TrEMBL record:
Gene3D superfamilies: TusA-like domain (3.30.110.40). Coiled coil: none annotated. This is Selenium metabolism protein YedF, putative. The gene is yedF. PANTHER family: SULFUR CARRIER PROTEIN YEDF-RELATED. It comes from Geobacter sulfurreducens (strain ATCC 51573 / DSM 12127 / PCA). Belongs to the sulfur carrier protein TusA family.
Length: 195
């Protein structure tokens, strides 16, 4: 079993390091040492989303994530994931447009609520910068985001952005993500819609 130490690494280094280790391991089990919080969540989610078996345990003042081959674990990276045609909606502000702030917030609220009436929905909604404020306590669109999540839309908020706005503990819709997942999602999407 290969062990890698990703403690004290800033986002997205733990995920990137884990990805490389899994590619080099050739099916061998990999044990990843990470800090609590976002690193533990991001690495475990990254591996699980790719079909690996994931076991998490406390170890050495942090956590050890054991990643082994699962039924769906890829033996080699997919050649061109963009052909899957996933739609990613990138929301980088809590308001829509460049006009008055109050109008921009009203437009964003209306847009997100209006998505509930659409037949075609994005596969992922990724919230960055002040866009993460839409996914935290006090947001007027939390119910709509929860309903979109129930319809299969993956709602992801940037962990660095949540930390910057001091609201990670107030996340109320979706899950925390990292820059590696964001970059990968954008680069492999069939289409990206930026608001």
């Amino acid at each position: 079993m290969k062990t890698i130490d990703c403690r004290n690494m800033a986002c997205p280094a733990p995920v990137v390091t884990t990805k490389r280790a899994l590619e080099e391991a050739g099916g061998e089990t990999v044990r990843v040492l990470v800090d609590a919080g976002a690193p533990r969540e991001n690495v475990a989610r990254f591996a699980a989303n790719r079909g690996f078996r994931v076991a998490v345990e406390e170890a050495d003042g942090g956590f050890a994530i054991t990643i082994g081959s699962g039924e769906g674990a890829p033996s080699a990276p997919a050649e061109n994931p963009a052909r899957q045609g996933r739609t990613v909606m990138l929301i980088t502000s809590d308001r829509l447009g460049d006009g008055p702030e109050d109008l921009g917030r009203l437009l964003m609220k209306s847009f997100i609520i209006t998505l509930l009436d659409q037949e075609s929905l994005p596969d992922r909604m990724m919230f960055l910068n002040s866009g993460v404020l839409l996914t935290t306590e006090g947001s007027e669109v939390l119910q709509a985001l929860e309903q979109l999540g129930n319809r299969g839309v993956e709602v992801l908020s940037c962990g660095v952005c949540l930390d910057f706005f001091h609201c990670k503990e107030k996340l109320a819709a979706g899950t925390v993500t990292n820059m590696f997942t964001t970059a990968e999602a954008l680069l492999t999407a069939g289409s990206v819609i930026r608001l």
